[in-house]
Amino acid sequence: QKKSLLKAFLSTNIPSSAVLFPQPVEGWASRDVLVEEYVDNARPIAEYLQDESPEGMKLRKQLAGPLLRSYLKMVFLDNFTHCD
User: Fold this and answer.
1) Is the pTM of this model over 0.70?
2) Are 24 and 3 spatial neighbours (Cβ–Cβ below 8 Å)?
3) How many CB atoms sit inside 10 A of residue 6's CB?
């Protein structure tokens, strides 16, 4: 189920350089397990929140728009939520 939902979600979201979504690995998904590809150079959002420098704050502002738009599109236009 998760695999089909992820594929449906990915089909409605055009990849951008700001927000990447890992793809499911074919042949490695079942009803209880979903294996997704490794996204090289991905960083947790928490890392950006720790940088209080002027450069870090500038980067946060650059990321805020694309992340918020992606989240709002996912919830309100695509009718998807992610709870785990």
Assistant:
1) no
2) yes
3) 19
